[in-house]
Design a protein that fits this description.
Elements: E1 5-10, H1 14-26, H2 30-34, E2 38-44, E3 61-62, H3 65-70, E4 76-79, H4 86-97, E5 101-104, H5 107-124, E6 128-129, H6 140-147, E7 153-159, H7 162-173, H8 178-187, H9 196-199, H10 202-216, E8 226-227, H11 235-243, E9 246-257, E10 260-271, E11 283-290, E12 294-301, H12 305-320, E13 347-357, H13 362-372, E14 377-383, E15 401-408, E16 411-412, H14 413-426, E17 434-438
Parallel strand pairs: 1-2, 1-4, 2-3, 4-5, 5-6, 8-10, 10-17
Antiparallel strand pairs: 7-9, 7-11, 9-10, 11-12, 13-15, 13-16, 13-17, 14-15
The structure holds NADPH dihydro-nicotinamide-adenine-dinucleotide phosphate and L-homoserine (HSE).
């Protein structure tokens, strides 16, 4: 039997503790499975005394993750601290620079510095593995790096953030408030250290940036992604979506278009009968449209200690098997520049929710603004206000803002934004209308 593959693990929070638990439970079988045992030779976290629900007493402690990353006797540095810069970046660079393999779950780091780190790994002939960085326990990096490598991928999209999906599911199914649902997601270990990364859509964008690079063979370009979070989603949107046969999901979408890559993160309406609409809680779904394979939909746990540790451990075992490949599939010298398509050119149907002053001519004025831009209305509904007293119907007060929901036929992003600007300027609405894209799904996702 070969000598053990030795690990230095930095970060013993949700994912790090999950990894130690997995190694305790299954580590004894790794030698049989991959021909080589795996051994933890050092760990690092901020506080040595913190109770973590796992026994770390027998493990060599490093106060400084950079020292652990460079330590003699460490074959693989496992970075589970988080953050795009600071200590996580310093430690990963130190490990790669010292010729150590690196396994990380850190999508923020990769989205910002992935190409530079991949180049360093290639120069040193070591692995930089990051299955856990996208969609937790779903093996989507492996799917793109290995299983679909012979295809041309047209589009990759899906639910990439467990926290947001958990919040939207709780608001839809259990009538929970946004704040309560977020608090619960944090307690369950799904959220980032700073949850605005989740709810603001940035975590999804970090993951999408990585997926787009793997799918299209381009440089990673997080900055070029158009990002909207779920903060603006209200109970009124959730109710209206339900009534109209839709479900609201935070999607990340990256597609090849004639003018470049369209990459966007935003809440989207999806038909309630689609497979993606049935993805609840912290579960993620990643759809890939590939030319020879066709449409693929991967669904599974997207966050939490155990599923994420499963992906981290798979990356470690690949190294134990001797698998080392260019981190971004295409060697970094061959990555194409990222060319962004114009978001204004996006073509699709839209949901528009407005608080319209309930007075004669208001609807006609709104319809005119849409018609002026060739936007055709598929449906228009004036909804009664929510009743504050159960069992007693609420009445619309004349002149007060009334909730109006419009669904458009397909149009362009530019046209809908211009129409909404004009409607707002006309003073027909009490606040800027809410606009949500209605996403066109691939054949595989409509059940
Ligand atoms: P946590 O906040 O739970 O854990 C972070 C760990 O890093 C803690 O153990 C903390 O120490 C340690 N740490 C922070 N600063 C330092 C420092 N300066 N020196 C040494 N250790 C430090 O994060 P998660 O486990 O949730 O996430 C870790 C990584 O995994 C992140 O990149 C995250 O994006 C990613 N990820 C997380 C998922 C999840 O579901 N949670 C899923 C997929 C990826 P201490 O414990 O002492 O405070
Ligand atoms: N905060 C992330 C999420 C963790 O909620 O999906 C998994 O990447």
């Amino acid at each position: 039997m070969q000598k053990p593959l030795t690990l230095g693990i930095a970060g013993l929070g949700t994912v790090g503790a999950g990894l130690l638990d997995l190694l305790n439970q299954h580590g004894g079988r790794f030698a049989e499975r991959v021909g080589r045992p795996v051994e933890v030779v050092g760990v690092s976290a901020r506080s040595r005394d913190k109770s973590r629900g796992i026994d770390t007493s027998g493990l060599k402690w490093f106060d400084d993750p950079v020292a652990l990353a460079k330590a003699e006797g460490v074959d693989v540095f496992v970075e589970l601290i988080g953050g795009s810069d600071g200590i996580a970046k310093e430690a990963v660079e130190a490990a790669l620079g010292a010729g150590k393999h690196v396994v990380t779950a850190n999508k923020a780091l990769l989205a910002k510095h992935g190409v530079k780190l991949a180049k360093l790994a290639e120069q040193k002939g070591v692995a930089l593995n990051f299955e856990a960085a996208v969609a937790g326990g779903i093996p989507v990096i492996k799917a793109l790096r290995e299983s679909l490598v012979a295809n041309e991928v047209q589009r990759v999209y899906g639910i990439l953030n467990g926290t947001c999906n958990y919040i939207l599911s709780s608001m839809t199914d259990e009538d929970r408030s946004f704040a309560d649902a977020l608090k619960e997601a944090q307690e369950l270990g799904y959220a980032e250290a700073d949850p605005t990364f989740d709810i603001g859509g940035f975590d999804t964008a970090h993951k999408l940036a990585i997926l787009a690079s793997l799918a299209f063979g381009t440089e990673i370009n997080f900055e070029q992604i158009d990002v909207e979070g779920i903060q603006s989603i209200t109970e009124a949107d959730i109710d209206a979506a339900n009534d109209m046969g839709f479900c609201i999901k935070l999607l990340g979408v990256a597609a090849r278009t004639e003018s470049g890559i369209e990459a966007r993160v935003h809440p989207a309406m999806v038909p309630e009968e689609s497979a993606i609409a049935e993805v609840w809680g912290a579960t993620n779904a990643v759809a890939i449209d590939a030319d020879f394979c066709g449409n693929l939909l991967l669904i599974g746990p997207g966050a939490g200690g155990r599923p994420t540790a499963s992906s981290v451990a798979a990356d470690i075992l690949d190294i134990a098997r001797g698998v080392v490949m260019p981190p971004l599939v295409t060697p970094t010298d061959g990555l194409k520049p990222y060319v962004k398509s114009k978001l204004g050119a996006h073509h699709g149907a839209y949901y528009v929710r407005m608080s319209v002053f309930d007075r004669p001519g208001a609807m006609a004025a709104i319809a005119k603004r849409m018609g002026d831009r060739e936007i055709s209305i598929e449906s228009i509904v004036q909804r009664r206000p929510r009743s504050a007293v159960p069992g007693v119907a609420a009445r619309q007060k004349p002149g007060a803002p009334a909730l109006v929901v419009i669904i458009t036929h397909e149009t362009t992003e530019e046209a809908i934004r211009q129409a909404v600007d004009a409607i707002t300027q006309d003073g027909q609405v009490s606040e800027r209308p809410q606009v949500i894209r209605i996403e066109k799904l691939g054949e595989g996702e409509v059940s």
